[in-house]
Write a structure and sequence with these properties.
Blueprint (H helix, E strand, L loop, with lengths): L8 H14 L5 H9 L5 H10 L7 H8 L4 H7 L3 H4 L2 H20 L1 H4 L2 H14 L8 H7 L7 H27 L3 H10 L6 H8 L3 H13 L11 H17 L1 H7 L1 H20 L12
Helix pairs in contact: 1-11, 1-17, 2-7, 4-5, 9-11, 9-16, 9-17, 10-11, 11-15, 12-14
Organism: Streptomyces termitum
InterPro entries: HTH_67
Pfam families: HTH_67
């Protein structure tokens, strides 16, 4: 299929939308909302907040949908978490937290701005071309109502676009033969992913698991002795992103070149403001 967009335009747009959506998962507002419901464990909060659209599912379903979490971590919290917080209550808590987070990070003027309303309309327009088949997290989120307030509609649309790309990315990982840990390790090795300390803390893997994954990648010629990507490893990561781009092209093609450019511009502005307000923990990214 011939694209009407500049190369990687959809990917660049995603890289402005996804991080702002993800501020929720680093937000004290999320912890506060779930603590009020009786759930204080940080890992349980984040697992419940993201998986709630799927319903009261167990660890197997979430391991499949999230891909890079250790099943043992998920099994410590699921399905037990739903005895404390129902999926409906979790959805309400995460939307309230998203509201508080965006207001705190962006400020009331930006939240109520014409630019926010424009960004929400553009992102929702892109979502019109997303597809449900083989995309469980996208499809579950697509069943949720669109919030009325523009900043929450923007956050909701960003969630849909994030999960649509993410579901396709998992198909690409399977096609190219990277298991959950190998996917995380190679992403970290690019310098564009979370560092290993954050991954081990949040995804449930042990340091021994991590080192075993690195050894598998060395055996495949994808990682060198120092833990850096080899030329073959770098090519594989780029192929992975290109396959993901193809699987995620529809919403951005639907929006059109001018719309994608404008959505990227608006999203970048919001993201810069949020990052400047301390949206992300220090030392989150890196190769270590």
């Amino acid at each position: 299929m011939t694209s009407s967009l500049p190369p990687r335009a959809g990917r660049r747009c995603h890289h402005t939308l996804n991080p702002l959506h993800s501020t929720l998962y680093f937000s004290p507002d999320l912890d506060r909302e779930f603590t009020a419901l009786g759930l204080a464990d940080a890992a349980a909060v984040r697992i419940a907040a993201r998986s709630a659209p799927l319903g009261a599912v167990g660890p197997g379903t979430v391991a499949a949908a999230f891909y890079n979490y250790d099943h043992a971590l998920l099994a410590r919290h699921l399905p037990a978490v739903w005895e404390t917080v129902s999926p409906a209550a979790a959805l309400g808590a995460r939307l309230r937290a998203a509201d508080a987070t965006l207001r705190r990070l962006l400020g009331e003027e930006a939240v109520a701005s014409p630019e926010m309303a424009e960004a929400a309309a553009l992102a929702l327009r892109a979502v019109e071309a997303c597809s449900r088949p083989a995309r469980p997290l996208y499809s579950a989120n697509a069943d949720l109502p669109v919030p009325e307030e523009p900043h929450l509609a923007y956050w909701h649309a960003a969630a849909l676009l994030r999960e649509h790309r993410g579901d396709g990315h998992l198909a690409a990982l399977l096609t190219l033969g990277l298991d959950p840990l190998e996917a995380l390790i190679t992403h970290t090795a690019t310098g564009k992913g979370m560092n290993s300390a954050w991954i081990l803390e949040t995804r449930g893997w042990s340091r021994d698991d991590w080192e075993a994954g690195r050894e598998r990648l060395r055996g495949r010629g994808l990682l060198d002795a120092g833990g850096e990507l080899t030329e073959e490893g770098a090519r594989l990561r780029e192929e992975l992103e290109e396959v993901t781009d193809r699987l995620d092209a529809a919403p951005y093609e639907h929006l059109g070149a001018a719309g994608v450019e404008r959505l990227t511009e608006l999203g970048r502005g919001f993201l810069v403001t949020a990052a400047g307000a301390g949206a992300f923990p220090p030392h989150l990214m890196g190769k270590n």
